[in-house]
Amino acid sequence: MIGEIDIFGVFVPAVLVLMLIAYLINVVIGKVLTRVGFYRLVWHRSIFDLGIYVFVLAAVIIVSHRLLP
Description:
Shape: elongated
Strand order of the largest sheet: 1-2
Strand content: 5-15%
Number of helices: 2
Organism: Paraburkholderia caffeinitolerans
Protein name: Protein AaeX
InterPro entries: DUF1656 (IPR012451)
Structural class: mainly alpha
Helix content: 55-70%
Pfam family, one: DUF1656
Number of domains: 1
Keywords: Cell membrane, Membrane, Transmembrane, Transmembrane helix
Oligomer: single chain
Low-confidence stretches: none
Mean pLDDT: 92
Order of helices and strands: EEHH
Distance between the termini: 6 Å
């Protein structure tokens, strides 16, 4: 995987792009969990959301490494 991505002449770290993708997926997961009412069972929502974000970020990084040699 390359270290930087060129976006209109601006070099941004690849991890930043992966973190943005993970954040967007995390927002969708949070909306679904709110609609289902799952957060009523969670003790501390912020810590739970952070944990979900870390898992999603790890999954995004693993998938990107598998897809891009």
